[in-house]
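Quick start: what a row looks like.
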Amino acid sequence: MSPPRDDMEAAAPHWREAFGLAWAFVGDRARAEELTQEAFVRLGSMRRAPDRGQPIAPLLFAIVRNLALDELRRRRHESLDDDAHEQDSRAARVEADPASSNPAHLADRAERRERVRAALARLSPTSRAVLYLRDGLDYSYRQIAETLEKSEDVVRVTLHRARARVRAWTENLEPRGEST
């Protein structure tokens, strides 16, 4: 029995979150879109027991996570820095605020944004995903743990370390640990 159309309709509102999770893992917007589309295709082709009480988002996010991890395994030898730098420079040009007439303010804001993006690119994919799920989507530690198949303690430690690293890297300090 194939899943009812209701499953796909229930999953549709979670497109942005699924895309954000994929992007947090792979660091490439175009590839994240492809992985998100693939996740929806796989969700649509799954044969599931008709359990209407269960939310569809955790299943969708688990599919996205697995696809993203498979992608990272396939391209382990490649660096995320090249794609991140290209996206950052393009985003800096597009996101300039035309309402602001202060070039120094615009330059400071663009520099800060660049430092944050560079710091996020240096984090491991799991650390980026934990940050995205907690700070971007306001997921609970339990929800993050279930989505990423980690313990809540590991999620808390990962989040703490990721925030500390991003903070240090954006303030031009050099923390120990992750760097891709």
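That is the whole record. Confidence is low (pLDDT under 50) at residues 93-99. The CA atoms of residues 98 and 106 lie 9 Å apart.
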